[in-house]
Amino acid sequence: MKTETIRTITIEDFKHDPHLIDYVDENIIVLDDVEATSQEASLVKLDCFIIAFCVEGETTVNINNKRHLLTANHCAIILPNTIIRHLHASKGCTCRILAISSQFMKEATDSRKETWDIGFYLYNNPIFPINRSSSYKLYLYKELALNCISEKEHTYSKEVKKHLFSAIFCEILSALHRTIPRQKDTPNFRNDRSTQIFRKFIEKVTADDGTHRSVAYYADMLCYSPKYLSSVVKRISGKAPLSIINEHAIKQIKYQLRHSEKSIKEVADLFDFANASFFGKFVKAHTGMSPMQYRNSREEEQD
After folding, report:
1. Residue 98 Cα to chain centre, angstroms
2. Neighbours of 269 (CB within 10 A)
3. How far apart are CA 82 and CA 42, in angstroms?
4. Full-prediction pTM beyond 0.85?
5. Which residues of 214-231 are buried (b: 16+ CB within 10 A; e: fewer)?
6. What backbone phi and psi angles, to 5 degrees, belong to 142?
7. Are residues 301 and 65 in contact, defined by beta-carbon separation less than 8 angstroms?
8. Which conformational region is residue 111 in: left (phi greater than 0), alpha (psi within -120 to 50 degrees), or beta?
9. pLDDT of 98-130, one tens digit each?
10. Which residue, among 59, 54, 178, 163, has the nearest Cα to 114 in the 3D structure?
């Protein structure tokens, strides 16, 4: 079976193709009316936010091992640490792409409760329609942004662009927030200390590559006892912290099994398992298959 290495993509990587870029700074990349290729791309892991708006045509994308169809007047928001592959696009398919750093997102939203609600929803639902009202406002923002990008630099150019792109980002989040249903399993975020602890826990787990699979490890990082951290996470999310940790770890393991050239033993070593037997039991418990069976199973899950 053909395997491949998962390449991490950052804001800096977009700068390698300057002929495609309409605007770039340390936190923002703008690509306007990019024609999507019909060829399958390599597998990449994002270290930034990607907002892609399909102008016309349609394109198929694999996001976290699920196929998604992005069609005209639909938007895709792809979160950091997401693994994606562009599979195919119809002839003449064009998209507008905004790539932003995680730090910029935090500054733009000030870690609001609503942003976390949206983040949990987007994890499983990365593509959504843009209604006419939102589409027209985004069109106006786009024209204003392109005007600011093309004009001669002045004393406040950097500040103007920063706040303008913050407004565009927040407008997209606002459009999404009006459409998402309230999920029963969505954490009940409040602006209190417990919520802050839970958010920091999720940030640490998400940033990890799945090599640390103990509550004690994260409790030590956050300077709390494992018992206290467990009670906070359970109260906020309804899930045990070990369950959240393992969900993230198995996602990383599954991608290595499917797409890396490493042997089963090398994958087990990569995730710091004591031996192949423990690794096999962990994979079997979470997938119902042995590591080799999972590696040889169907290419990807269907949405």
Report:
1. 14
2. 15
3. 14
4. no
5. ebebbbeeeebebeebbe
6. -60, -45
7. yes
8. left
9. 888 877 877 776 655 566 667 777 877 888 888
10. 178
